[in-house]
Amino acid sequence: MSTTTAPAPSKPPSQAAQDPPAWKRFVHTPTAGPVLALLVASTFFSFQSDQFLSGGNLALVIQQIMVVGTLALGQTLIILTAGIDLSCGAIMAFGSIVMAKLAAEGVLPPLVAIAAGIGVCALLGAANGALVTFVKLPPFIVTLGMLNIAFALTHIYSDEQTVTQLPGELTVLGDTFPMGSTDISYGSVLTIVLFLVFAYVLGQTAWGKHVYALGNSPEVARLTGIRTARLRMTIFTVAGVIYGIAALLLVARTGVGDPKAGQTDNLDSITAVVLGGTSLFGGRGLVLGTLLGALIVGVFRNGLQLMGVGSIYQMLITGVLVIAAVAFDQISRRKQRS
Amino acid sequence: MNPKPAPSPVLRARGLVKRYGHVTALDGADFDLYPGEVLAVIGDNGAGKSSLIKALTGALQPDEGEMWLDGARVAFRSPLDARGHGIETVYQDLAVAASLDIASNMFLGRELRRPGVLGSVFRKLDTKRMRTESAAHMSELKIGLRSLTQSVETLSGGQRQGVAVARAVAWSRHVVVMDEPTAALGVKESAQVLDMIRRVRERGLPVVLISHNMPHVFEIADRIHVQRLGRRVAQILPRDHSMAEVVSIMTGALEVSSEPGSGTVVTDTNAARAAGLTPRPTD
């Protein structure tokens, strides 16, 4: 479909030369706010604690956000279509139990067990997608139901037991390699690579443009010839696969299959997406913004920890931050319009 | 009155019927569009105007009737199918994806990929080429824009409609259909869109213009197709009739013979008077 071309242009382009410089365009992107927030927060914490800017501490921040960050990547895809996914954490927990149990009990070879865990997540993601696309239920309701289903499945299948004694293949992503004087986990690298891949897919491929068009208006997308039902199904399924990868990262980080894991991760992932400047109304946002959003949450928790602030106050501050970020976004957008 | 040899129509339909339950939206409608003309389609609400346009652009499938494009029988299964046949449609308010830039909108659904491995394996878009071609198309229609990288939502309504028109023109091989393109626009922006329609005609593409706005219709149309009660009741030339007469034909107060320029017959004197006409006893 991309092989056809429009009739060849006869006149040289006259307008393209007058594009504003790159930095000016950046200021107007939804990513400018999160970058600024991250810089301000990092500067603040570096004055509060000498440890904050150390390589080891920054590696720790990334290590702490890799699971929620990866979930938030899948969440971003769904929010870009004006949807929401409340079930991502529960789907991840189910996937992690499936791969941990299958591998620990020797039912399947470790790598196949991992694939099965990711496959289960993809399946539940596709089920969300089918209900939203074909039964036309609101994503909020569908994923609320799926949250309960996946939560229950996790507890039934695990029999409420934590799965231990996992084969090495399941925890290898938790291992580290030295970079300079800092130890970096393979999982952190995988998370960053995933973000870069999806930044490319959304920004540089036709599929990415179609995701934004679908989020702007499903009707416009349909009328321009985009197969919107198939696209929406793909988005939910891909998000499921990403949750499966998050499940593997979770198992690798904790070293066990924990049926109680991930219970607040759905809301944390939405927090990261929103802090990253992606609009809940769909069609606007960047996955690299989500990475920044996850980093902001991580930096605040880590920095406050270093300052000796209790975890319940960290939550309080995160809450204020989310509301402030959305308010800032809304007000700046209103100003731009008028 | 005009004994020129009739060129064969680009798009022709005969006896289109569309029923929704017991409502008949199209009741044997005919349609003819000739090369290089701007044809206005007018009609009161419920006259079957939009059903007719939907049938011509593949958005609905008529129960009965036949269509020809450049003399060949066609039956469109979907809007995409009609587009594949070179019929492009500009929708009133469903034209563009707001957060994407102009070039992305121009090529939405038909993106160009980089040559070589970058395009075939990595599916990378040829953003530069899409921008260059978009700029050329926009300047051809004299749509002035400061930047091609700004998202469409930052443009004025007229400029946005300009992007939609430019896209339709760039991809259309046979017909451009515009559904109420000025309905949401101010006076100045409407004038810009009418200018664009003229330039499309200069390029030789026929335009079907659906409009409620009589002054616009009279300003731009070469011919007027009047739709009433699910069928075409008249094809008239704007210079043969006044605006009030056309409105009267639309509402059924006047009837016009099928021969162009052969005058009108008053069927409802009161309604004709209400429309501002002073009917003569015989015409």
TrEMBL record, chain A:
Segments passing through the bilayer: 52-72, 78-99, 111-131, 137-157, 184-202, 233-252, 273-300, 306-328
Family annotation (Pfam families): BPD_transp_2
Species of provenance: Streptomyces gossypii
Recorded topology in the membrane: Multi-pass membrane protein
InterPro entries noted in UniProt: ABC_transp_permease
Alphabetical UniProt keywords: Cell inner membrane, Cell membrane, Membrane, Transmembrane, Transmembrane helix, Transport
Compartments, as annotated in UniProt: Cell membrane
Database matches in CDD domains: TM_PBP1_transp_AraH_like
Protein name in UniProt: ABC transporter permease
Keyword Cell membrane: yes
Residue ranges, annotated region (Disordered): 1-20
Keyword Transmembrane helix: yes
Automatic annotation (TrEMBL), chain B:
Pfam name, any one: ABC_tran
GO molecular function term, any single one: ATP binding
Nuclease found in the keyword field: no
UniProt keyword annotations, A-Z: ATP-binding, Nucleotide-binding
Coiled-coil residues: none
Matches recorded under PROSITE patterns: ABC_TRANSPORTER_2
Domain ABC transporter: residue ranges: 11-254
Composition bias type Polar residues, residue spans: 259-270
Residue ranges, annotated region (Disordered): 259-283
SMART domains per record: AAA
InterPro entries reported in the protein's UniProt record: AAA+_ATPase, ABC_carbohydrate_import_ATPase, ABC_transporter-like_ATP-bd, P-loop_NTPase
Protein name: ATP-binding cassette domain-containing protein
Lineage: Bacteria, Bacillati, Actinomycetota, Actinomycetes, Kitasatosporales
